[in-house]
Structures are given as C-alpha cells and as structure tokens.
Fold this protein.
Amino acid sequence: MGVPISQTNRRLEQGLSPWSIALTRLKRNRMALIALGVLIFLVLIAIFAPFITPYSRDEITMENKFQPPGNGHLLGTDDLGRDVFTRLIYGSRASLSVGLVATSISMILGVTLGAIAGYYGGMADNIIMRIVDIFMCFPFFLMAIVMAAILGPSIYTVMAVSGFLSWPILARIVRAEILSIKEREFIEAARALGLKSADIIVSHILPNTLAVIIVYVTLGIAGGILGEAGLSYLGLGVKQPQPSWGNMLAAAQSFRSLIKHPWLWVPPGILIFITVLSINIFGDGLRDALDPKLKR
Amino acid sequence: MGTLLRVRNLITSFNTSEGQVVAVNGVDIDIKEGRVLGVVGESGCGKSVTSLSIMRLLPKSNGIIAAGIIEYNGQDIVQLSEAEMRNIRGNEIAMIFQEPMTALNPVLPVGEQIGEALEIHQSLTLKSRENRLRCIELLKMVGIPRAEEIVDEYPHQLSGGMRQRVMIAIALSCHPRLLIADEPTTALDVTIQAQVLDLIRQLKKQLGMAIMFITHDLGVIAEMADDVIVMYAGKIVEEADTYTLFTNPRHPYTQGLLASRPDKMKRDEKLHCIRGMVPSPLDMPPGCAFAPRCDHCLPACYQAMPRLKDIEPNHRIRCWLAEQGCNN
C-alpha cells in the first residue's frame, strides 16, 4: 500500500521553514527557472567578459568600421571599428550594475522610511508620506533628464537618479504591509515581553514583509535597467567610451545606421528585452512562490 | 503573604470618533503573592482593558489611563518611563494571549521567540548555546515532546495546544512573579483546554507565581481561581473568594450568570438567560449599569451608582439591595 503522492508532498511541506517551502514551490515553476538560468548566464558573462572575447573593449581600428557580422567579428564593428560583441558583453556590466545599485538605494531608503512611517504613524508618517507624494508627482524621465543635466552624465548619476526616484513606491508598499502587520497579536505579544520598538520592527515586522520586498526589488532591477537604457540612449547616462546597452542603442539615432547597420542596435535591444523579460518572469515566479495564500 | 499588585481606582478610557469611552471605571484589584485571581465578565466589560492597563500596553493612539494607581511591588507603574516599563514586561509581569494562532510570529522558529525574552531580560545572547539549552528546557517544562526538534520548528508546524504551550513557555521564560492570562483557553478545544489548565496550575505550584486569570468561562474560574472578581460595564460588581462566590452569589448579575450555566439543565428545559443587552459605553444609564436588566431593580437603581460594599468579610457587592439592607 503506497501513500498518495499529494499526501507525502504535504507532509514534506509541514517539516520545512517558510523559505524552504517557497524554494520547493519555485522549483516547480519551469518558466521562472528558465528565466533565472538566463539571468545567471548574463551575470556570468558580465563577470568574465575579458575571458570571453579576444578584443579589448575600446580598441579602435578605423579601417574596419561598419563591418557586418562575420570575418572574425561575431556581431560586426561600429563606427570606430570597435567589436560590437565585445562592447555588448562589457555593456552588460554597466546595465546590470546600474540595475542592482539603483535598486539597493531605493530599497534602503524605501524600506527604512516606509517602516518608520508605518510603525510610528502620526507625525513621522505624515511627513514621510507627503515627501513620497511629492516624489510621486515628478515624471520620472523629466526629473532624470534634469538631474543628469545638472550632475553631468555618468554611470553614477544614472544609479543615483534611478535610485532616488524609485524609492517612494517601495516606501508605500512597506508602509501598507507594516500597518497591517503591526496590528497582529504577535506584535502585542512581543511588546508584552518588553521588546523595544526598533527590535520589534527589525526582528518581528520586517521578516514578515520580506516576501513583498524581495518581489518588488526583483522587479525594481528591471526598472533600473530600463531607466539606464533610456537615459544612456539620450546621451545622459553612461558616457562613451564605456559601453552600456543604452548608449549602444543610441546608434539607432542615426538614420543611416538604423537602415544599413542593424547589427549595431539590434543585439543590445534584444538583450535589454531578454533581461527585463527574464527578471519580470522570475519576479512573478517569486511572488507566486512566496505568497502563502497560493498554497497548492 | 504580601500584596504583589495593588490597583486603586483605575480609570481607562479611549478616545473614539464618537467621543470618549470609559472602558474601565474605578477598578480596585489586589493580587497577593502566589494567589490566583479570576476575572469574569461578558465581552466588553473591561477585563482585557484592565490587563492591558496593568501592562501599559494600551493602543498609543487613543488609549489612556485617566486616573488611578497601579502598584506593583510597592511601585506605581503608571508613573514609570517606557524604558523602565520594558524592564518589567516579560520579566516581572508576563502575559499569555488568547489566540495561540496569531500571538506567535509566523516567520520565526519558536526557539527564537522564546530566546528573545531570555536575551533581553537575562542577557543570554540569542543563538548562543546556553540560550538554546534554556529554550529546550522551557519547552520540556511545558510538556512539549521532542523539544530538541520543536525548538527549530515554525508555529505553523505545531497544533493549537502546542502553540499555547509555547506561549506559556515564552511567558514563563524569565520567571515572572505575576502572570496575566487573558482567556488562554478560549481558542482551544475542550480536551486541550483541560490539559493547558492543568499545566498552568502545575507550573503555578512549581514556580510560585501569582496569576490574574481572565475568562468568561465560569467553569474555568471554579477550577483555577482562589478569588474572583465579577465585572460588568467597566466596574467590579462582586468580589469574593471562589467558594463563596459560587455557593452564595449576592449580586443579581452574578446570580444571573451562575443560573445561565447549562450544566444543571434537564432535557427540554429552556436555558436561563439574563434579558436585555449590555448598555453601550457611549450611553451609560445614570444609575446602576445593570438596572435595566435586573429583576430586583429598585427606584434607587436608576438614580445613582451604588458603592462596592462589604457584606461579609472578603465579600463585597455593588448593589442597592445591599446598601438598603434588604436580603434577596
């Protein structure tokens, strides 16, 4: 007599922590796993860029400009004879690091301010949420362009701009989560034990909001990458000669390249598309895996 | 034996959008070292608010202790700073909550939740070896089997009775001298209830702490308490030792409560109940709050609130019948 599979599965989940349950559920989601694989592959490429390509990043050979793919150049060469493939994989460094750093900034700001607003309420809440409202009124690109124009275009500007403009959404999400969690009985129980407010926030409330934060942060990285691409495309982001997917796309600004040299702008476009899509699919998978209400 | 907790004229009120609501109105409580005080009353009579006032855990936004003293061990804790109060909570006065399902943090292993109290009050670093051993010892003390494994498990992996045992372990982790148990068995089924009550009684004997036991279950009171307070609409209406209260209840409300128990009923007999409803705290009648529901109501009842009067040694009731010397 065998035990039905569903029953053994359930028993397996019983003996696990919430995190390992989420992991088992994530493993069952094939799309999310493929997306994760793609992302890991991209990160590895970015890290090991110098070992993958024989060319150096900024090597100019004017006699080789606008070479179509083939002839030793996998994706051809650009207007200065630089190898497009080389620049593409170096460019992933800029794009991915902007995504990560910008999201870290917005996470630190958003979680801290959201937690303070949600837990303490009253004056603190009012002030922080009004700041959030003000930030939310700014159209992202207009603000980003103005800030980049003032600070001067560089990869750090892009990181700072995307980071400082995207925290308000996270602050709102964290605040809303904390508002509901702080009314739960175990918070009162923690206070009855004599815990300090700061301890309660860090050890009792934040672990309960972690699922939401993780999902938002994952999706936020995609936003950061898109922001970088947009700003660099406009020439306000990562500066030449440092490559990024955004400033490589800028090649499409010239009508001649748009028509005659598609190898300059199609590959970075596709990479942005694949990266953002993978992050979004993986983020969705994470949300499903971390959502306790979707227990299947 | 000394008095551990002495509450005098406690008035706790809440600011609500409809106005100020006085939830506890002039309550006096004495808990002696090592004794169990039962507090009974229906929902909304101020039992839980009384206990939260003693812990100073009223919601910050609108709950205030408007008057009164709460003397713990000779020290008025209403005057203490928040930091001094944190030192008392969990350490000197601990609390068991009603819902074991929601009073444990779902994302932390139970060991960590016990260890936390040890870290704050006994400076045993969380995740240290001694801390862990203490946690396992506490889990064993509350009768949890496989304590070495349970210590790393999450609340959702435990049954309701086990969770309530964990709650008790947390509450007792720092050897409090006063335990406030706010309906600790209401959410459990009957067999588990009996086990948990047995456990509390046995631990009380073992550790010698005083207990304030809040419940609306008279059967539980009869089993657990040495003395009983009956509350109605924010006031104490009768106070006696358990035996006297059950054999000779004098306040019409207590009599009604005792008559409403289903245990002595015959088949097809109608269940006795107290007619009417508890008056809204926003709209209290001018006299005795129980007067509109009382079968022995006198004209005086609608005029003013009677005092809490001694009718025998250690037996006090708040009723005009006692004031005017009639015996009902």
